[in-house]
Amino acid sequence: MDKEAGRIKITVLKRFDTKEVFKDPPVKAKYSGPCPIFKEGQVFQVDDSMPNGFCPYAWDTIFPMIMTLKFGGNCSEWYEEPGVAVACCPDGLRPVVFKLERKKPGSSGRFRKPSKL
């Protein structure tokens, strides 16, 4: 990848249970409870590819926004702060919401897990 591209931090903000999304779900799921892949507060760093342990369905959905931020774009139509975005996975019955943040090119250090959400 381009060495001038920024790194992206993905933070899991919220996992929803189907009961939080629908009183009466429109379809019956083969699963229950919130997504088992992620934990709230979990942090991933994006360098050149999907982070280990990341859900490929969520990755496919948020990838365009990650690339926009990674290469200097912003989501200014929705957010006042440059270099950030909020996105969610495609599971409509138990979505997971992520915060995406661009780290400036050339900055040192790795992202740290937030102390409290």
Task: Figure out the total of helices.
Answer: 2
- The largest beta-sheet arranges its strands as 2-1-4-3
H-E string: EHEHEE
Number of domains: 1
- Euclidean distance between termini CA atoms: 31 Å
Average predicted confidence as pLDDT: 87
**How many beta strands in the DSSP annotation?**
4
Shape: elongated
- Proportion of beta-strand residues: 15-25%
Structural class: alpha+beta
Sequence stretches where pLDDT stays below 50 over 5 or more residues: none
Main sheet summary: 4 strands, antiparallel
In terms of quaternary structure, the protein is: single chain
Helix content: 10-25%
How large, in whole angstroms, is the Cα Rg? 15 Å
Describe this structure in words.
The structure is a single chain. This protein is α+β, with helices and mostly antiparallel strands. The chain has one domain (7-23, 35-103). It contains 2 helices and 4 strands. Strand 3 and strand 4 form a beta hairpin. The protein is elongated. The termini are far apart.
Which key features would you list for this structure?
16% helix, 117 residues, alpha+beta
Summed up:
The chain is about 15% helix and about 20% strand.
Any chance you could write out the topology, listing elements then pairs?
Blueprint lengths: L6 E9 L2 H4 L21 E4 L9 H15 L13 E5 L7 E8 L14
Antiparallel strand pairs: 1-2, 1-4, 3-4
